[in-house]
Amino acid sequence: MGYALIEIIGKKCNVLTIGTLHLNKVIGQANKLKRIFEKVLSLIEEYHPDELAIEAPFFGKNVQSMLKLGRAQGVAMAAALYRQIPLTEYQPTQVKLAITGNGQASKEQVAAMLVHILGQKFDEEKLDATDALAVAMCHHLKQQLPLGAQKGVSGSGWSAFIKDNPDRLK
């Protein structure tokens, strides 16, 4: 499981922490879920985040993998809710689109774009961690959009935003 916390100061984005929680040595599904809950709570207690963004479950071919992933996501969400931290879910395609402009981008393309955006190198072997960073950045970028530019709100997403804000294009 990847995790990342960012801090926004003005227009600057700082990566506070990024990492991967390895669960392969933890025996039993219940113990793995407990470990995820404990890790998320420890990150909350250390960094005091204002919000949590998480990748929404996606549909795959392996039902058992989807079930395990859904449980893990639920436990992470429960930890945030336990500390009364607002949370937002993003579909994988939304995250990829926000970071690369391509909703079908590979993990490697997302990681490369994060290096470009943040001007910081990340461990290429930890794509789960850069995925988590991408979710955090997607959430930050979405918060920067005026209401009329957000999909599902008045107008038609980016097209309406561009039409309404020609001075912001450079």
Return the CATH topology. Answer: Nucleotidyltransferase, domain 5
Principal-axis shape: globular
Mean pLDDT: 86
Number of domains: 1
Write down the secondary-structure element order. EEHEHEHHHH
In what order do the strands lie side by side in the largest sheet?
Answer: 1-2
Structural class determined from secondary elements: alpha+beta
Question: How would you describe this structure to a colleague?
Answer:
This protein is of the alpha+beta class. It has one domain (2-168): Ribonuclease H-like superfamily/Ribonuclease H (Nucleotidyltransferase, domain 5). 50% of the residues lie in helices and 15% in strands. The protein contains 6 helices and 4 strands. It has a two-stranded antiparallel sheet with strand order 1-2. A two-stranded parallel sheet has the order 3-4. Helix 3 crosses helix 5 and helix 4 (107-118) packs across helix 5 (127-144). The chain is globular, with a radius of gyration of 17 Å. The model has no long low-confidence stretch (mean pLDDT 86).
Keywords:
globular, 170 residues, two-stranded antiparallel sheet, Nucleotidyltransferase, domain 5, two-stranded parallel sheet, alpha+beta, 50% helix
